[in-house]
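User: Study the chain.
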Amino acid sequence: MPDAIDLTIENLKNQLSSVKQRISQCRKKGLYTKIAELKIISIPSKIMMTEATKDFKDAQKVSKLLSDAAVEVENIEREAENAKNLETNKNKKE
């Protein structure tokens, strides 16, 4: 049976995968994703470090980085939606 830290690491990997997919979707829509990409660039190595140390403090740091990246992606998505709504409203007025 896996330890709690192993489950935590697996959860971090799943979160990273999810954030990467969302960044990819944004990029395909032509949105600017560079900041989000920079925020996740060091995460895989930090997950590997957490696997080696089995330290919950390392896992918490990675979780914080993932959270920051997810917030950045949400901001990108929200800005794109706001821009789309503004364009739609502008076209309705004309």
